[in-house]
Write a structure and sequence with these properties.
The structure is a single chain. By secondary structure, the protein is α/β, with parallel strands linked by helices. It is built from twelve helices and nine strands. The protein has one domain: Queuine tRNA-ribosyltransferase-like (TIM Barrel, Alpha-Beta Barrel), CATH 3.20.20.105. Helices cover 37% and strands 11% of the residues. A seven-stranded parallel beta sheet has the order 3-2-1-9-8-7-6.
């Protein structure tokens, strides 16, 4: 039987996060995305978790380190083509998480992604997308409107605005929508950058990140993998990734993990992947991808 690893001894502790939810001075906060909500009590590495995984839990554990909360919008729109939870239900869920798990860095709104599959529907094996059959502009309008409603319902919770689009002009239009609504994005501690997951390692994705960073925004990149971080990680305040799980699924389990078919749900593998990929970032970006303050 494998001896449990002492994560606190294996990795240096992260600094106490600032009250604003911003990353520690001098570095980009890199969140490890997981559906394993109990990991909050096992590691102080920054985690990114879906609100729905907390909502279904009878017991919630106090958090050891920084974490952020995803609304689960991609899954909602993929399966239903709409949001099945009301803003009030979502706020109630976020408040329970805050009170039982601990203050999070921030929580995503109930935004509307703009990927082609989300809008038009289709199949990306094994996933079926029903499609919203709405325009990119309507997705943007609903994203901004939801953020305003959530802020009105819960101004004390750290709910962030998210930019959505498909092209640079789309994202510029979304920025203008927030401005017309009276939201000063430059003053927000974090601004999410949505619908770039499949573009983040491409020239198009880099152009979007660069254009939005030029507005002086503290951007969070959803679903950024190593290639995207190598290209534009220096322009992001934070990012998250679940790529470790797919990586593990294609490989045999770690030594001593023979009871697993693979390590796609394994904390030890996830932490090893995170340290390895951060170490692979070019030296000039290395400082920007740590959890701790620059020396």
């Amino acid at each position: 039987m494998t001896q449990p690893i002492d994560i606190r001894r294996a990795l240096p502790p992260t600094n106490t996060r600032p009250p604003s939810g911003a990353p520690a001075t001098g570095g980009m906060r890199f969140y490890l995305t997981t559906h394993k909500r109990h990991w909050v009590k096992l590691t102080d590495v920054p985690l990114f978790l879906k609100s729905e995984h907390f909502a279904s839990a009878a017991k919630l554990y106090p958090v050891m380190g920084p974490y952020a909360v995803d609304s689960g919008g991609f899954s909602e729109l993929q399966r239903h083509g709409r949001w099945t939870r009301t803003p009030r239900q979502y706020v109630d869920n976020l408040r329970r998480i805050w009170e039982c798990v601990g203050p999070y860095d921030w929580a995503a709104p109930q935004d509307w992604m703009c990927e082609d599959l989300i809008i038009h529907g289709g199949t990306a094996r094994p996933n079926v997308f029903v499609g919203t059959h709405l325009s990119v502009e309507e997705h943007q309008r609903r994203t901004v409107a939801n953020f305003l409603e959530l802020r009105s319902l819960a101004p004390d919770l750290r709910i962030i605005p998210v930019l959505q689009g498909r092209t640079v002009p789309d994202y510029e239009r979304c920025v203008a929508m927030y401005e017309r609504a009276g939201v000063n994005l430059q003053q927000e501690p974090t601004v999410g950058l949505g619908s770039v997951c499949r573009l983040q390692s491409t020239r198009e994705g880099a152009a979007i990140v660069t254009a939005m960073a030029a507005h002086g925004l503290r951007l969070h990149g959803f679903g950024f993998k190593i290639l995207g971080l190598e290209r534009v990680g220096h322009l992001l305040a934070s990012a998250d990734s679940a790529a470790w799980s797919a990586h593990a699924r294609r490989r045999p389990p770690l030594p001593g993990h023979a009871t697993h078919k693979n390590c796609a749900n394994c904390l030890e593998y996830a932490l090893m992947w995170r340290k390895r990929d951060l170490a692979a970032i070019p030296t000039q970006h290395q400082m920007l991808l740590t959890d701790r303050s620059a020396a």
